[in-house]
Design a protein that fits this description.
Elements lengths: L4 H21 L10 H24 L1 H5 L3 H30 L13 E7 L17 H12 L5 E7 L3 E9 L3 H12 L9 H14 L7 E7 L8 H9 L2 E7 L5 H11 L3 E4 L5 H11 L16 H27 L2 H28 L6 H26 L85 H10 L4 H8 L3 H10 L4
Parallel strand pairs: 1-2, 1-4, 4-5, 5-6
Antiparallel strand pairs: 2-3
Length: 517
């Protein structure tokens, strides 16, 4: 049975679902995403789940569709191992590519910043659910602390039912000062309710109490829900000359309220569907804060969004390439290796181009549904593209397929269950001797012996010299059709199986498929 590309599109999509669940559920503590090595390892482990799930789904597709348990089991384990390795390496390479984005850096600044972060229980709920289950807001705040100039001052405010200044307004002139500020960010938890006024009042109060003439003051105020609020909080910030940049994370925020706070204080409101966008957004706020925080080196410009999209596409293309290489190794032919690598690269690029639009369009669950749909699309693109490449390159090739590794079984020859013998090769049951019984009837008279006619002389076997050689059938693109025609030309099951490197049962299935007996 020919396994068409639609089955691989379906299995790739299923692998995308499983990969999404693994990526969202698995998180390794102790990795600092702000360092290059920590971020590369973090993304490697993250995308290893996607590669593992997609690899095992694609690996067992052919065996499942053809109802060959041995090949399905082999594809499951080999696809899982090679897919996991491909995803791990793809995550590292892709993140390295994405880190090539040129970053703007502050040269000098003398501003005061208070970062007020919502720590209510809706940020993290069961397992990977919630608006910020992996603490992206904390990573974004620590990234801001690293980006500020030594002459800047920063304060950290934690608020839920009540507010607390976990780090007073302080200069960042030393490594120890930056470390202390980031350690304060790590104290922000995910419990409690939401009191917007308490958080805003605490941030405004800290900046007002330590006011220094000539230093611009502003607040990054992030929340993911609704809660208690008094208009006096924004009025106080306006009277103090403090700008408030409000960030609404998820779908349950009061956009009008947050927008009003920002407008009254001269700041700006930013709605965010996905917590993974917070790091880039916080950096954008620094750049847009009236120029005081965003003095850049001469000639430096903001990153082109088309460049970001191109790097995103290239990252996913590399991911697809490495997953495709794993599938080609599993097939164990050089032709399949080339086809799967090319198909995986093109499928990953297509999926990468569609990833961001999916996340943006589907905002349910704080972007969770959008990421799930995007992973499904990427998996389907990789699976379908790899199979199409195999059909165009491998099936249409006139050359004999060359194996890659001798330790792996040849293509289409994996079977772990004994196949039933074909009818023509089943042994006839041996005749059983009749049990001895003493004669109880009278003995009949002997009959005359009739001379048996001599049997005709044996006929010579039909000539086989007119059969085409087995090598001539290798030119047929479809392997099953080639085996069926070789069987129809008079070759035995064992002869065909030995020539094509498969089992006799595989030859018999191919013959039955094409009506050859």
């Amino acid at each position: 049975m020919k396994v068409r590309s639609r089955w691989f599109i379906l299995s790739g999509a299923l692998g995308g679902v499983l990969g999404f669940l693994l990526m969202e559920m698995v998180k390794v503590p102790g990795l600092d995403p702000r360092t290059l090595s920590g971020n590369l390892l973090r993304m490697s482990i993250y995308f290893a789940g996607f590669g593992l799930a997609t690899g095992l789904a694609l690996g067992m597709t052919e065996g499942v569709v053809q109802r060959r348990p041995g090949r399905a089991i082999y594809g499951f384990f080999m696809g899982m191992i090679l897919g996991g390795v491909g995803g791990f390496l793809g995550g590292a390479v892709g993140q390295a590519i994405y880190s090539l984005v040129p970053r703007t850096h502050i040269v000098h600044s003398t501003s005061d910043l208070a970062i007020a972060l919502d720590s209510s229980g809706s940020m993290r709920t069961l397992f990977f659910l919630g608006n910020d289950p992996w603490g992206e807001r904390r990573s974004a705040a620590k990234n801001v602390i690293d980006r500020l100039a030594p002459t800047d001052r920063v304060a950290i405010v934690d608020f839920d039912n009540e507010a607390k200044v976990v780090h007073p307004l302080s200069f960042l002139g030393t490594d120890a000062a930056r470390k202390a500020a980031k350690e304060a960010v790590d104290q922000i938890d995910d419990t409690g309710g939401t009191n917007l006024s308490a958080g805003l009042d605490a941030a405004v109060g800290e900046l007002a109490a330590r006011k220094s003439p000539g230093r611009p003051r502003f607040i990054i105020f992030l929340t993911d829900g609704q809660g208690e609020y008094s208009p006096e909080s924004a009025s106080r910030a306006r009277r103090e000359g403090i700008k408030v940049y409000t960030v609404g994370l998820g779908a349950d925020v009061e956009a009008n309220l947050l927008g009003g706070i920002a407008a009254e204080t001269g700041g700006r409101y930013y709605p965010v569907a996905n917590a993974s966008e917070l790091t880039a957004l916080f950096e954008r706020i620094l750049r847009e804060n009236g120029g005081a925080m965003a003095e850049k080196e001469s000639g430096e410009s903001d990153t082109n969004p088309l460049l970001l999209l191109g790097l995103r596409i290239l990252s996913w293309a590399v991911m697809g390439l490495l997953i495709g290489l794993g599938q080609g190794v599993r097939e164990n032919t050089r032709e399949d290796l080339r086809a799967c690598a090319l198909g995986g690269f093109l499928g990953g690029a297509l999926g990468g181009a569609l990833f961001d639009p999916m996340v943006i369009l589907v905002k349910a669950g704080g972007g969770l549904a959008g990421r799930a749909l995007a992973d499904i699309v990427v998996g389907a693109c990789i699976g379908g593209s790899m199979r199409l490449a195999q059909e165009k390159i491998v099936k249409a090739s006139d050359v004999e397929l060359k194996p890659i590794l001798a330790i792996l079984p040849k293509k289409a020859s994996v079977t772990f269950l004994p196949s039933p013998l074909p009818p023509q090769s089943r042994p006839e049951p041996a005749p059983q001797p009749l049990p001895f019984r003493p004669e109880s009837r009278p003995v009949e008279p002997e009959r005359p012996v009739v001379q048996a006619r001599p049997s005709p002389p044996p006929q010579p076997a039909p000539e086989r010299s007119n059969r085409p050689p087995l090598s001539s059938f290798a030119k047929i693109a479809n392997r099953e059709e080639a085996m069926a025609k070789a069987r129809g030309a008079g070759y035995s099951l064992s002869e065909v199986a030995e020539h094509f490197g498969v089992t006799a049962s595989a030859v018999k299935r191919a013959a039955n498929q094409y009506g050859v007996r």
